[in-house]
């Protein structure tokens, strides 16, 4: 199916995004978000998970957690373009929740051959995170350090996103028959979660260790399922970066419009105007690439993998650029705890590396365009 010129972003998608923006503005405005994570300004203590489970419960009631569950499996099965609008709104609010990871799990399960048990759990309101990265940060299931034998898991998964918030884990594990996906309840005996100290105060990350944990096998080819879902995961993460970038840009424009220097607003000077225009252009580029990747996934286009890599590579650049410019334009106040900009700066820095940074995605893109480099 050919991609529509508007990426398939219709009135229903716009309505979902508008609903999400209102929801996040009402439930967790930025001053409340700042207060929620305020104690994280003490670096000496162990990492904690700051979030409001009641907000997640409302998201589940709204049906957001099942947007990527196929309609034939009982979910809503919305086009990814519409889901991207929702995630863009969450990024703009920087709301701590397991929504993105649960949606990602739904995408992966959609490409698994035995996924019914996982879908049923998500339909019941369970949140879930992907657990497959190795200790070197490889976001490819082929490098998993978790072993499976007779449905029992042993080993560790690293850099597990939102591990402190989710109810379950979708684990890639190696067995004699290959690498497969397994469903594990986080509360199961033998599961231990060690929180990582990360810069992003709106997310959490952990190393999850499995010591003889019983698991349910959901897919026999984890690598193929993840590869098929990865462009969609990249598109959603890019949409999150766009939302956070738009908040940073809007906040910075408002600041330079009222902050005066030499009896003029800072925004009067071209040295301030032009960099902010460049930020706007970067955000718009990433937004176009994010929705293009989502549309390519929806239309099952041959260039879907390429579109996903383009979106996340651009998002990594934009995350860095929008965050650094916002802090710079705020001057000295931009480095203080009292200025909300740092919350988004830290979120963007985490998003920059999550599921592959710009270098990794461009290397993958080069492999697609020119072929793999000979060893």
Features:
Butyryl-CoA Dehydrogenase, subunit A, domain 3; 15% strand; 10 strands; alpha+beta; 49% helix; four-stranded mixed beta sheet; four-stranded antiparallel beta sheet; single chain; 375 residues
Layout of strands and helices, then pairs:
Blueprint: H1 11-27, H2 30-36, H3 53-61, H4 80-93, H5 99-109, H6 116-123, E1 128-131, E2 146-149, E3 152-161, E4 168-175, E5 178-185, E6 191-195, E7 205-214, E8 216-219, H7 222-258, E9 260-261, E10 264-265, H8 270-298, H9 304-330, H10 341-353, H11 358-370
Parallel strand pairs: 1-4
Antiparallel strand pairs: 2-3, 3-7, 4-5, 5-8, 6-7, 9-10
Topology-level CATH name of the domain at 224-370: Butyryl-CoA Dehydrogenase, subunit A, domain 3
Strand order of the largest sheet: 1-4-5-8
By CATH, the superfamily of the domain at 224-370 comes out as Butyryl-CoA Dehydrogenase, subunit A, domain 3
The unreliable regions are none
CATH first level of the domain at 224-370: Mainly Alpha
* Count of helical regions: 11
Number of strands: 10
Query: What oligomeric state best describes the polypeptide chains here?
Result: single chain
Task: Explain the overall architecture.
- The protein has 375 residues and is an alpha+beta fold.
- It has a domain at 224-370: Up-down Bundle (Butyryl-CoA Dehydrogenase, subunit A, domain 3).
- 49% of the residues lie in helices and 15% in strands.
- It is built from 11 helices and 10 strands.
- The strands form 3 sheets. Strands 1-4-5-8 form a 4-stranded mixed beta sheet, with helices on one face.
- Helix 1 (11-27) runs parallel beside helix 4 (80-93), helix 7 packs antiparallel against helix 8 (270-298) and helix 9 packs antiparallel against helix 10 (341-353).
- Keywords: FAD, Flavoprotein, Oxidoreductase.
- Its cofactor is FAD.
- This is Acyl-CoA dehydrogenase.
- InterPro entries: Acyl-CoA_Oxase/DH_mid-dom_sf, AcylCo_DH-like_C, AcylCo_DH/oxidase_C, AcylCoA_DH/ox_N, AcylCoA_DH/ox_N_sf, AcylCoA_DH/oxidase_NM_dom_sf.
